[in-house]
From TrEMBL:
Protein name, per record: GntR family transcriptional regulator
Keywords of this entry: DNA-binding, Transcription, Transcription regulation
Highest taxon in the source lineage: Bacteria
Origin species: Streptomyces javensis
Lineage: Bacteria, Bacillati, Actinomycetota, Actinomycetes, Kitasatosporales
Alphabetized Pfam families for the sequence: FCD (PF07729), GntR (PF00392)
InterPro entries reported in the protein's UniProt record: GntR_C, TF_FadR/GntR_C, Tscrpt_reg_HTH_GntR, WH-like_DNA-bd_sf, WH_DNA-bd_sf
Domain HTH gntR-type positions: 1-66
Segments traversing the membrane: none
Length: 215
């Protein structure tokens, strides 16, 4: 039950069912997910450890609200780690993993531009799951999981931005070609870093626009 509610609440937060800074009231969450306060408290503690929930004095748990400074910091670390993951994939991935990455990319090329946000998130997650597995570095894997959990709160901003979908497919194609086809570690690193930098720029621009509208 706990794991099911954890996944449901995480998905709802990433789908913007709860706004950044919104209070997460235990009674309402209990009614929404039809579980006890004990389960909700355990779930909120887990989400706080992932950086998705922040406990504010005199307010209690709220949806984490990332500032532009937070976003820049997250993307700086993500850029470095994903660049390394791409380089290591080029050097270490098996033939099967290289083929798997190509298959994921083919599906994305066909369906990504017309997919909804949830589908795009799932496809991006699958692409990175294969890429990180092929890097064969558990430290990168565990560290990026924590970073991606917080970045996902913002991915809707960049992934739904006008014109971003075809750019994303082109950037992931460059990563695949360098890492899986040519096995060029330097080119794979550069392609991964470029993708993250472009995503960061789009996210910061969309975040600024959202804050301006709300202000």
């Amino acid at each position: 039950m706990r794991s099911q509610v954890l996944e449901l609440l995480r998905e709802d937060m990433l789908a913007s069912e709860f706004e950044p800074g919104e209070r997460l009231v235990e009674a309402r969450l209990c009614a929404r997910y039809e579980v006890s306060r004990t389960v909700i408290r355990e779930v909120l503690r887990q989400l706080e450890s992932e950086g998705l929930v922040t406990t504010v004095p005199n307010r209690g748990p709220v949806v984490t609200e990332l500032t532009p400074f937070d976003v820049k910091a997250l993307f700086e670390v993500r850029c470095a780690l994903e660049g390394l993951a791409g380089a290591l994939f080029a050097e270490r991935a098996t033939a099967e993993q290289r083929e798997d990455l190509g298959e994921v990319l083919q599906r994305m090329s066909r369906t990504y531009p017309d997919a909804d946000l949830a589908e795009r998130l799932a496809m991006k997650d699958e692409f990175y799951s294969v890429l990180i597995a092929g890097a064969v570095n558990p430290v990168i894997d565990s560290t990026l999981r924590g970073i991606h959990a917080r970045v996902q709160m913002l991915r809707g901003l960049s992934m739904q931005a006008e014109g971003r979908a075809p750019e994303t497919v082109r950037e992931l194609t460059a990563i695949h070609d360098a890492a899986a086809v040519r096995g060029d570690a330097d080119a794979a690193r550069a392609a991964c870093e470029l993708h993250v930098r472009n995503a960061a720029a789009t996210t910061l621009r969309e975040l600024s626009a959202r804050q301006a509208d709300s202000g």
